[in-house]
Amino acid sequence: MDAESDKITSGRPRRADSIFTATLELLADSGYDGLTMEAVAARAGVNKTTLYRWWKSKDEVLAAALTDSDLLAFEVPDTGSLRGDLVQTSRHIHTLLTDPATAPIAAAVLAAGPRRPALVAVGRTFFADRAEREHPIFRRAVDRGELPEHADPRSIMDMLAGAIWFRLFLRAEELRDEDLCAAVDLVLDGAAAH
Fold it and tell me: Which residues bind DNA (predicted)?
């Protein structure tokens, strides 16, 4: 038994960061099919029983890693304007999708998703967590009168993030900062017109 890993820190195993890092590295290196509980345990230096005590499957470990790993963490911007916040958020999304440490993770999730219903559920968990974290951006924008009360933050972020994902992964085109700013302006024009 791996007693050290079983100790609880803030409702998770003490070695959670190592487990999450191992999970995301394996996903990037070996793809979804190569991600196993055994491989995660070996790379993280914990017993497999520790993983199963906290998570029932590799999908649960992956969902936890995607939402709780410091590797994918981000600060919600507060620039004083909706446009500024969305430009900063777009830059963050762009960095996650292009940084050598995180881009393979996004590519692996995107590639495996259509064939793996369980991975789709993991993606939903990840994006629901992101939406919850981004919610203050839109609440502040409504309070400042930049967005109508009925504006749909999810649709706005789907359009914005979707444009970035599409350009990078499907068109394999580079995005410059001015492209990100133009995408934000286009989405905001549409939100204002709607």
Answer: 36-55
Q: Does 39 share its domain with 89?
A: no
Nearest partner of 69 among 112, 120, 122, 110, judged by Cα = 122
CB distance 29 to 43 below 8 Å: no
pLDDT digits 0-9 by tens, 15-70: 999 999 999 999 888 888 889 999 999 999 999 999 999 999 998 898 889 888 88
Q: Which of 138, 174, 173 is nearest to 153 (CA)?
A: 138
pLDDT digits (tens, 9 = 90+) for 166-191: 999 889 999 999 999 999 999 998 87
Same domain as 180, residue 85 = yes
- Expressed as residue numbers, the domain containing 36 is 3-68
- Whose tokens are 């999970």? That residue is 23
What is this structure's pTM? 0.80
Does residue 167 share a domain with residue 181?
Answer: yes
Contact 19, 13 (CB under 8 A): yes
One domain, residues 51 and 96: no
